[in-house]
Amino acid sequence: IEGHEVGWAASGRNGGFCAASLTHGLANGVERWPDEIAKLEELGERNLDAIEAAVARYGIDCEFERTGEIDVATEPHQLEELREWHEELVKLGITGVDFLDRDALRAEVDSPTFLGGLWDRNGVAMLHPAKLAWGLKRACLELGVRIYEHTRGLDLVRSGPGMAVRTPYGRVFARRVALGTNIFPSLVKRVRPYTVPVYDYAL
To answer: Which end of the chain is more exposed for a tag (fewer CB within 10 A), N or C?
Structure first.
C-alpha cells in the first residue's frame, strides 16, 4: 500500500545520489565500527551492484550512471586531511578510493579552486529518482505485485500469526509487514523515538 502515489514524496524528489554506504558515510562508519568497516563497505558495494543489475534487468530508464564521488580540498589543511584519510583507508583495507593531487583532479574537474581530492570511484551512482520509482512500480506490476496507491496505513497491530494494517478502506492482513517510511512517523510507535531526521541539500 502507498499513502499517495509511488514516488510522491522524498523517494521521487531527492538529489539522485545512490550511495553504497550502509553507514551514512565512510567517516561515520570508521568511527563507529572500525573493525567491521571493510566488510560493511564490501556489502554496501554489493548492494549498489545489485541495484544497478536490477535497473538493467527490468529495463528501468532512470539515467543510472556509476559516477563515483570526489571530496575536494580548497585549502592546504583540507588537502592534508584528505591525504591522511586516504592513508587510513588503505590501512583499513578499503579499496577503490584514490587520492588525487591538483593535476589529477583538474583532469576530472577543471577548476583552479580545487587543490586535490579523494575519489571513491565505485561507491556512488547518479540517477533520476522519480524515474527509478516509476520503473520499479512498472517492474513490480509486471511480476504480479499488487500496489494500492492512495491507501494510507493508519495503524499496525498483531493479528494471529501475522499483522494487520488498518487503512481508510478496511484492514490488510499479512504474515510479514515491511515499513518503507522516510519523512513520516513510523506506524510502530515504540520506534518513533529512534527515528532521527537527517537534513540535507542539493544544488
So the answer is: C
DSSP element (H, E) containing 52: helix 37-57
Which 8-state DSSP code applies to residue 173? E
What sign has the CA pseudo-torsion 94, 68, 25, 178? negative
Cell digits for 137?
512500480
**Dihedrals phi, psi of 155, to nearest 5 degrees:** -160, 170
Mind listing the pLDDT tens digit for each residue in 147-171? 999 999 998 899 999 999 999 999 9
As beta bridge partners, residue 73 has 116
pTM above 0.85, yes or no: no
**Letter string b/e over residues 176-196, b meaning 16 or more CB atoms within 10 A of that residue's CB:** ebeeeeeeeeebeeeeeeeee
Residue 55: name the closest of 112, 149, 129 by CA: 129
Q: What is the DSSP string of 126-148?
A: E--HHHHHHHHHHHHHHTT----
- Are 133 and 11 within 8 A, CB to CB? yes
Grid cell listed for 80: 592534508
